[in-house]
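lol so apparently i was supposed to do this last week
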Amino acid sequence: MKFHLLTIFPGFFDGPFRYGVVARAGVEVHIHDLRDWTNDPHRTVDDRPFGGGEGMVLKPEPIFAAVETIWPERHEKQKVILLSAQGRRFSQQIARELLENEELLLICGRYEGVDERVAEHLADDELSIGDYVLSGGELAAAVIVDTIARLLPGVVGNSDSTVNESFERGILDCPQWTRPAEFRGWKAPEILLGGNHAEIRKWRQQAAMEKTTRLRPDLLARLAK
Ligand code: 9D3
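anyway here it is w/ 9D3 bound
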């Protein structure tokens, strides 16, 4: 799968994509500097908001020019996604849907926002990664690329091992322990040390339920619907 990221901070991605699933073959990430599509000596990408207000807004022209250069012709399996705090909330299910594409172009917002004509007339979708305020879309882009890339066949070794993931089952993973069996007086659950796999499966299911009830009751409420 091929990802294009449009940003005013191309250097931002030097770190996150050198590690993990994104560094592997089969995942291509192309970083594009938005300022490359400006025509003025100052390489201006932003301007003051109409109607007044704090801060600056990303101008539409460089963004449209960039997307139209990267993809002179658009086809069905190419999607332009605007990342903004106002988008619909990204999730494991949206990651699965986006996996159907051949290429994704993620536009990273900055400043106070992006001229609304980008959302209305250029982007196929507008996504947020959660209800908190970031300083821009770059961290969101890294999160989305990582989440989709690890679902690609070949990434997890066993292609079945992602189909049963906690967010897709609707409850959290069960808690895990490893050696030593006793650490500072805290013992790993006895049942996990034995070989009764049927009992272990039951115990884990119960432990996952208890943990979900305590930390993510919202997931259980959704399951009940
Ligand atoms: C505090 C400024 N806000 C009110 C005027 C608007 C605002 C503008 C720009 C809020 C955040 C941002 C920058 N954030 C993103 O571009 C962003 C984001 C986010 O803030 N949270 C979750 N997901 C995303 S995706 C892009």
